[in-house]
Design a protein that fits this description.
- The chain is of the alpha/beta class and 280 residues long.
- It is built from 12 helices and 10 strands.
- The strands form 2 sheets. It has a 6-stranded parallel β-sheet, sandwiched between helices.
- Helix 5 packs across helix 7 (124-132), helix 5 (95-105) crosses helix 11 and helix 9 (160-176) crosses helix 10 (192-199).
- The longest helix is centred in the middle third of the chain and has 17 residues, at 160-176.
- The protein is globular.
Length: 280
């Protein structure tokens, strides 16, 4: 048994979709969540900047003595998997699990991939799908406006701007006849009702956050690393900006009231060495 918490990070609120799935599957686990709300979105950043952000986010979570880290960010998972691989604890993203789930789900081998600009440009989902299903036809689509829509809570099926945006992005996939669509950013499952309305009931949506949480549960059980205490898990939230906005929207994302303090931190301080002690 391992009573240390699970660490989850994302560029903002989207990673809460992973937290929600972890709460359902592993109710006894403590979770430390960091949402980098001061630097959201990650999807339009350079590779060098994304690597820097990923290292800072992971270093913060390691300081909380986590036993596992989930990069609940499709962009980091796609662009900086080497950062995760170099950590002293097991760390995973959302690419492999979601891609594998799409391969299992598709019947006509036509798979759509939705992601941020950086995720789509990386080709990470495409490479993983082709490893498992070389005959697949893959239709990647960058959706840069989806993240700010989610961050601002515009996720209703009747939000006209969200509906029009979804139609603009999804029409090429619908015309291509895809039967499976990967929601390759953990913000996107919050738009699943809208995406589902546009694509139609016959199209399977793959929730990358759900796939990541399922993988986490399997690995912890396999390793005998579940929390051994007989209590409900605790949630600890940290953000880099706008804690009031986080509290308001997080309750909607998690499906329960967010209680307790939302801690604000300067993530840039994580990389700065402690000042030397003054000599006597």
């Amino acid at each position: 048994m391992d009573n240390r918490p699970i660490g989850v990070f994302d560029s903002g609120l989207g990673g809460l979709t992973v937290v929600r799935q972890l709460m359902r599957r592993l109710p006894g686990e403590d979770i430390v969540y960091f949402g980098d709300t001061g630097r959201v979105p990650y999807g339009n950043r350079s590779r060098e900047t994304l690597e820097k952000y990923a290292r800072q986010d992971c270093r913060f979570l390691l300081g909380k003595n986590v036993k596992r880290i989930i990069a609940a960010c499709g962009t980091v998972s796609s662009v900086a998997p080497h950062v995760l691989a170099a950590l002293p604890v097991r760390a995973t993203g959302v690419v492999e699990q979601a891609a594998d789930a799409a391969v299992r789900a598709t019947l006509n081998r036509k798979i759509g991939v939705l992601g941020t600009q950086a995720t789509i440009q990386s080709g990470a989902f495409e490479r993983r799908i082709r490893e498992q299903l070389p005959s697949a036809e893959i239709f990647p689509q960058a959706c840069p406006l989806f993240v700010p829509l989610v961050e601002n809570g515009w996720i209703g099926r009747d939000d006209e701007v969200t509906i029009l945006t979804a139609r603009r992005y999804l029409t090429p996939l619908k015309e291509a006849g895809v039967d499976t669509v990967i929601l390759g950013c953990t913000h996107f499952p919050l738009l699943a009702p809208v995406i589902g309305d546009v694509m139609g009931e016959s199209v399977t949506l793959i929730d990358s956050g759900k796939a990541a949480a399922e993988d986490c549960e399997r690995q912890l059980r396999r390793d005998g690393a579940l929390n051994g205490t007989k209590k409900a898990g605790e949630l600890h939230f940290y953000v880099s900006d706008r804690p009031q906005d986080f509290t308001k929207v997080a309750s909607m994302f998690l499906g329960c009231e967010v209680t307790g303090d939302i801690h604000t931190l300067d993530i840039e301080q994580v990389d700065r060495p402690e000042p030397a002690a003054a000599g006597r």
